[in-house]
Structures
1.
Amino acid sequence: MSVNVEQVSTKNITVAKFGGTSVADYQAMLRCADIIKKNTTNRLVVVSASAGVTNHLVRLSQAGVSSTEREQIITNIADIQFAITKNFTSQENINNEISALLTSLRGFAEQQAKQHTTKNSDEILSFGEQFSSRIFAQVLQTVGVNGHYFDARQVMKTDNLYGKAQVDLTQLAANAKALLLPLLTEQVIVTQGFIGSDQQGNTTTLGRGGSDYSAALLAEAIEASNLSIWTDVVGIFTTDPRITDQARSINEISFGEAAEMATFGAKILHPATLIPAMRQDIPVFVGSSKEPDAGGTRIQREVESNPTYRSIALRREQTLVTVKSPQMLHASGFLAKVFTVLAKHQLSVDLITTSEISVAMTFDNPHGSTQALLTKAVVEELEQLCEVSVEHGLSLIAVIGNKIHGTKGVGSSIFDKVNDFNIRMICHGASNHNLCFLVPEADANQVVERLHATLFTS
Ligand code: ASP
Ligand code: MG
């Protein structure tokens, strides 16, 4: 098929990001290509690795992988990629490119087996997106779109904190405007999410799930008009649909509410994604590449309706720490001391309530169990200052919406229906967008289900 070279203005560009399941196989990629083709403002495409590939690469990057396992992993990855390229009418060039990448990957993996470094890990982790972006550019060509591969490491400049590199926004903006933007008038550029390069040119990664964040940063850097995040669900839901089948997709939501949801555990977007979009005021669309016509969620600064209740988020495995000191009575400086200990151990407090002699707090831990974060050392240090009690097995529920503080009856609408559960540590968030509390882990699903029925379906 001939490729249609259409000129568009760089004034109205959509950055489209496709997640791992959206580029999992050839059929999935074709659906994405169709999305790009149907809307000619889609000029910059950011892809994740095909589903499963990054997990294989993570294993490959670890210490102690035998040469047999190494070869097995590389074969598994090769199988995923070649299963896609075998659908192309002309395969030779792309297969050569994939083979060359596999050889280079094997080199890094062998080096890693000899001497494990985090720098080498990032080289290894970056391959998933390198494969998928090359392949997707060719899928675009197959459907008649002038798609071209672009190496994100040319523009996404970072520090050298391998595995969790921080992006230099000034360099990114300058590079993207100089190297990327001019290409977009005639080409649809396909680049990698998740990866960047440090000042020496070594490959870096932005942290798992970082492709959303890459796409948002690129959208900001080129001052795009829109950012579309294509995933495998039709937008953001009122709550986790695995908890209740009453959950439904939200049409429109403000940046403030969506940021709150991302922080409180809605896993659909990488939590940092909205920051660049908010800075540059770029509306974000979240939809499913499997059902592009089924709608999705639009996230933007102003929305038409601002209901009191928008969604319910649930975060599991919370740890509650209560510190108690009679000294707190009429004393000042106690909290400062407690926070100094926490800051030293890089623990960030999530919810906090205080009474005359005690302070209760939970810890912000989007990446897993707080149990691991709250080490014996931290507890011992706090014990120097006061009595400490630590409780695990709790879940944090956040009711997210608008003017939650200023609306009459919020307390009874939320708590009346769940008053047979042990609800603890009720906190009105500082942002006016949420109200949070803790429940025992075992009750969490039931509480969410019942609240959802009360707040959304009646
Ligand atoms: N491929 C990377 C990961 O699986 C980045 C991403 O998909 O966002 O974490
Ligand atoms: Mg992802």
Note: The radius of gyration is 24 Å.
2.
Amino acid sequence: MKKLFTILLLLLCFLTCGCTSNKPKSTLDLIKEKDILTAGVKFDSKPFGFIENNEIKGLDIDIAKHIAKNILGDKNKIKFVEVTSENRIAKLINGDIDIIVATMTDTQDRRKIVDFSIPYYVSGQVILCQKNSDIKSAANLSYNNTVIVKGTTAEKTFKQFHNKSNVIKAHTYHEAFNAINNNTCMIGDEAILQGFLQNNQGYQIFNKKLSSEPYAVAIRKEDTTLKKYIDFTIEQLQNSDELDKIKNKWIK
Ligand code: GLU
């Protein structure tokens, strides 16, 4: 009887221990285990994520470094992986990256697939044209004279005043910018388009905002504890005025 009891006890222990160790690790556990946070960021969206002197910089990069500091105690324990507007959600879902910090607007549609932190910046979409453009306002925009970047909310913005959906689509911001001519304009986030104007003469932005774009960090839906760390980081930055300092450093 005593022997049977011991066997049962051992079996119970084995089953319990087995269950515990088989529990899938959360992204947060894995980040801590690997001692590195992998963030998907833009490499071509000045002043949020861009390369200068072989170094990745920008407002999104600073936010991501603060998140790494909060989770791992060191802002340099971070690996940056390039994402585009088109591929960022797929890269998050398939596990190539732990988080997206890439000028990404929190929208209801995207919330069906991923989760978002609290916002850390609000931009709005505007029209960018050549100074001598024939296009003078949003009313002159049409599906065949408007460029947007694929995978961005600009397509929805365009559809607000045009029901034709076959607007001209570029894969990158550089490609979209290069497609602008005196009869073709671009719709995009003011914060990113201003970055292009800093290095290019002969263009103008129409001031009227066509949308509101709250930027937030995207995470996989199951990563609820990781989300708490990220929200806490952004709240801390807000409360300590550090977020304003970061914005003033990058947005001119
Ligand atoms: N914020 C917009 C979006 O998330 C456009 C900027 C971007 O391409 O990331 O679609």
Note: Residues 5-19 have pLDDT under 50 and may be disordered.
3.
Amino acid sequence: MPRRHPRMMVRRSSPGASSTIGDSENTTGMHNEIERPRATEDSLRSLIDAVPGFVWSAAPDGYVTFLNQRWADYTGVQLCDAQGFGWTQSLHPDDAPELAVYWGQLLQSGEAGEYEARLRRFDGTYRWFLIRAVPQRDESGAILCWYGENTDIEDRKRAEMLLAGEKRLLSMIAGGSALTPILEALCELVEASFNGGLCSIVLVDLKHPYPASEPVPRIQPGAAPHVPLDLVPGADGRPADAVLCPVAMAAVTNEQVIVGDLNHETRWNGWRTRALSHGLQANWSTPVTSTNGTVSGILSILHREPQTPSTAQRNLIAQCTHLASIAIDRARNEAALGKIRSELTHLARVASLGALTASIAHEVNQPLAGIITNASTCLRMLGADPPNVAGALETARRTIRDGNRASDVINRLRALFSKKSITLESVDINEAAREVIAMLLGELQRNGVMLHPEFADNLPQVMGDRVQLQQVILNLILNATEAMNTISSRSRHLQVSTHADDNDRVCLTVRDNGNGFDPQDVQRLFTAFYTTKSSGMGIGLSVSRSIIERHEGSLWATVNEDGPGASFRFALPRITQSDNAGESVTTQETP
Ligand code: ADP
């Protein structure tokens, strides 16, 4: 029961208190100086009852003396019980206290006013009403009574709520929120719009299994903030089976499934029994259609009472599924884009390494073949009876020669690489790093890596080849990600930071909390073909060091002292006045 304002509890016996509509002694109350004939009073009462709203009157102290029949029909409360303050029992418990305060203020000020509150219908559902009250005064200005009228504003309230919800959801979608919270917010909006309904949204993925030509829908979890979990399909990720539940049927047929009363339903036996045991008796499952016309999800509403949707409710469902389709399409496009980005990154990396590997393989192959031939000749000579020691010595010498030749090849290749022409321009390392990070976000997300960028303000620019420097940053970040791949006992943190050091050099550090390395191996990390990974090439760091040294900078690694993992840092000279004075973009070939 709502709290009652103290003033509303008092019944005064002033003339004003009785000069109201419905008071038979004073006929109309509006013109109480005139004695109205009975017929007029009856027709006035019929008129008041015919008004498409609730009409009431109250004494100057707020004691309600009259309510029309419509009010009684709506609330299911007898008029005799509603008189005085009995009407307050129909108010929504959340609205009653504030309305009592507001009504008390009106009575005190004597001003007309209006208030929005929910009134309970005879069947227990609440609808919003605009409650208006106007004082009736005598010539001296004293209040004789209050007249009131309540108008049903449920549709307007719902439209407002839907609009506000829609705006909130669209800004979440535009702001790049994750799909689950968006769908959860949408479910809550649907639940608020469908009194007491429980909403869930599942995702539907269409897969083309070989050799079937028709795509098979698979249901995946979406959002179901209040629906019992044993009623939500999709946890197993198996192909949707229409006989399992209405949601699956809607996914398979791409058509709305309306079950007005589960008690009279013979399909979906297990699911139906579970739904009824939860006190849920109706289900409306509607496909969410993506822009290409395929089903991308199902929006399901479960109801406690048997019911079928009205036209207005069907329109509302259409609006909500449209919102869901925007959210799902957007998330899927983002995911596809992220995947393509990261594949491109890998492709670029692999392609450049691939080209290098091919040339290395070609160059190294010859001395390698020589080494093998010489080594087996050597063995044969030593195994002969008597052993041909002089010949074996000669072939062993040739083996060493070929080994040196192979190593020369590698050195030559590295030198070749560092002689590659580079494009010099002024580079903002913060910006270059941000671009690399943007490209790698999907990769980091997939690996569960938390990124902490810490870019220094007013970082001086450097002179260099932007693309090559970005290759170094990319390599350091991918290495750090790989170094954290096996970590499961702690969360994976990657810090990319920049600063200008005391020697006016621009530094970039990539710090991870991965496996780290043995400090004794620190120099080996930068030698070509040193790798600890089963599928590693071992040339990323050696190439990176060549690039940085080519830019007159240095690249080094340290084991973190204050925690697990490693830090890789490069420092480059900042751009100078003379750099700036020259051409901003030049191509330089080192001798
Ligand atoms: P690859 O990644 O193909 O192994 P790299 O030259 O990039 O080649 O790296 C050489 C080796 O350096 C790696 O195999 C790894 O052992 C070590 N390393 C590189 N980055 C890290 C890191 N962030 N933490 C620990 N070890 C690292």
Note: Residues 475, 479-480, 483, 512, 514-517, 525, 530-533, 536-542, 566 surround adenosine-5'-diphosphate (CB under 6 Å).
